[in-house]
Amino acid sequence: MPDPSPDNPAPDLPATSFPKGRIRVVLLEGVHPRGVELFERETFQVESVPRALEGEERHAAIADAHVVGLRSKTQLRAPALEAAQRLLAVGCFCIGTNQVDLDSARSMGVPVFNSPFSNTRSVAELVIAEVVALHRQLFDRSAAMHAGRWDKTAAGAHEVRGRTLGIVGYGHIGSQVSVLAEAMGMRVVYYDLIPKLPLGNAVPMDSLEEVLREADTVTLHVPATAQTRSLIGADEIAQMKPGAYLINNARGGVVDLNALAAALDSGQLGGAALDVFPDEPAGTGDPFESPVRHRPNVILTPHIGGSTAEAQAGIAADVASKLIRFMNDGSTTGAVNAPNVELPSQAKVTAVGSDAKAHRPHRLLHFHRNVPGVLSKMHAAISEAGANVAGEYLRTDEAIGYVVLDVDPIDATDIAARLRAIPETIRVRTLW
Prior knowledge:
The chain is α/β, with parallel strands linked by helices.
């Protein structure tokens, strides 16, 4: 099939002013094949890299990319974003976006998309499995068997039914954990900075300290912010029940690992489960060090909370679909650093060949600094070009504005040049 273009649109696919076959998508860190499939279906060029990249290797890989996809390891700070001269959008194929400098991307008119909900169930199920494993000391019993020791005893092993689970952060994952835990007969208490409606019989607490004092197991589900850094340190652990368990499948910096190690050694805590760490190896097979290694009843997993086939396929489909919509029609729905504009699909082109351009409105995507007077300048520029606006879609945030203009067929190159000349313009892209 030849590369689609305005003069040669691919069947049933929206044409763009830049041939879709030349749009380059670079996916890092082994994004699920479902994402690759969706991009290739759009006839984009796709390069998939199975690992995280750093430094010059990262710069070289994304230098001419229009779309970059990554997971949690690859860092896209200002220098990396500036090195990608053609970059139009970034996709974080995970929940978090702290690996991307969102402010720098916003200032360049580069929306960043993620998938905040697709792995919710996978993480919640891991938490419940860890609650049971910690109460039954399953990992220690299994390790003893692998070492050739038969240790058949009920000492230290307990049912989770009737125990209290304390959830810190009652968002999408925390609330799912709440439902599953209650179904197993656990009592659930939780704390969140923002008032959240309890599900089932879960009981909201007024403070983190109340949850720590009440719970037999505390599980953390908070984002990585300045406020949550070392949220659980020596003082907080001291408030927990003697012999209680701590689970962190949220962000590595939330727990002071030295304090946790000391509490495990002293017996203040009976065990812990950690899936995230402040410093994580870049790739499979790299060495791993942590203050909590080599301690009994401690479950350590390599950041696999959302790493199920179902979750990864769902994340890949979700983020890829958002990126494709932005590339094809300019919709920014789901972007975390840009105003969200949901756009209608354009009418299908009924003519063929060069006549198609004369029957389709131009769509112009305009990112600009959010200051007074920009819209009037845009309208003046379009009027001076003799164009008629058939549709206008606008959203702003505190820093930038995003306007999508559907303009009756005319010289789109001239209009785009006039819009770029407006001092507050960040980026203009013509779709057709």
